[in-house]
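Task 17 of the worksheet. Students: predict the tertiary structure of the chain below and write it out as structure tokens. Keep your answer in the requested format; marks are given for formatting as well as content.
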Amino acid sequence: MANNTKVKGTADVVFLLDITDSMDYCIDAVKKNIRIFVQELQKAQIDWRARIIGFRNHEFNQADWLDADGSPFTADLNELRRQLDSKKPSGGDPESLEESVLDALHYVSQMEVSSGKTDPGKWRPTGRTAKCVMLFTDAACQDLVSYVPGNLELEDVGNALASSRIRLSIIAPDFNCYHELAEYNGVYYVPCGKPEDFPKMHLSAAELTPQEKANHKMTFEDIIRDFARTVTATATEEAF
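Model answer:
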């Protein structure tokens, strides 16, 4: 932020994207709306950084299930767009409606926190920095975390997110596992109808028919703005 701008809060943000084959439209929608997110935080005078992390199905794509390397925290809009461009939808289990969502959420809950000097590969120190994650997926959660040993379940992941003081916003179809996650402190869930209807949510208002507008009360732009307000509120709370 400009040196003469009074900072009202500090936030580190992770856009956590399902990057299996079926999610190319979601990545495109984030690209189209990422500027709106940045502008909202700048208007609110938030000292922000963000990064893009992608995930697939660990059991089906063990070698490349997580796409986080080369995507550090940044406050540069063009760098965020570069990170989005680097996320190539592929893989996933075509026979399953589940992806490694719990694995990805557990991963971000365990990301290191800087102890002193700001590190683009780590969260800034907890206390005055809000840690916010926005999850986009069209799939349900698998039952167990498989990328680390221990047979961790949804309850373990929910507790890990709460312990790490992460504010999680979930954008996904209506699946029971997300309603269960939303019971944990700091988790907000926007059920987006049936899986087959999920792609329509990513269209702009101009691209929707009158009937589709009636069925989809929020456009993707609305959701991005709402998340920016959540980040702003959380960052402001952490500052005091």
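Marker's comment: The mean pLDDT is 88. The chain has one domain: 9-238.
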